[in-house]
Amino acid sequence: MVNDYFKFKQFTIYQDKCAMKVGTDGVLMGAWVNVENADRILDIGTGTGLIALMIAQRLNAAIDAVEIDSNACMQAQENVNQSLWSKRIKIIHQSFQDFATETKTKYDLIVSNPPYFQNSLTASRENRTKARHNTDLQLADILIGALNCLSESGTLSLILPYIEGSLFIVKAAEQGLYCVRKTNVLPKPGRKPKRLLLEFKKIKKPFTEQQLIVELNKRHEYSDDYKNLTKDFYLKF
To answer: Is CATH 3.20.20.10 correct for 5-230?
Structure first.
């Protein structure tokens, strides 16, 4: 049974109202994303508010966090209200498609752990389906919306499964967003990458690629790289 809350070093995530609970993908994104020179930040599909709170811990910036699901939005607001950074994080109950069309703000950083399952069986609960599958938010919507909301020097950062991420790199380049940093996330040594951490810019820059192993040979035996990346957040590190 999943706990109703997940305690980090500087904040707690309550998750009883959310379909998608705290997981490795969200923590990786919040710890990996480059926040340098970002004064205005947008979190797409914030869920519990995890990534927004991780970024707020890392730097003093204004963060808008968009969420379409009403229960998740309520949960995110509660988590933000109980944090040290409630004055800097704004939870917005709206679809990203509508938000991207209406906002006049240009963001230095847009970040997301988006829904990405396209062809798998949908989850039995509607809100979990929306959170896990791109029925309401296509990756193409993120691409189009990000192009509208990013400043000229801004960054889009995503975590995606390997295949979807590889396809997104190609589609983004066709629209003028270029992958400048990629980290291949391996669940264990010798395994194929399961996730891609991706960073995009409107301006072509030198491309860097790395790999990150999450666990070693035993479950919960985490690699030094993973520990170093997440040590400011996990209590056990």
So the answer is: no
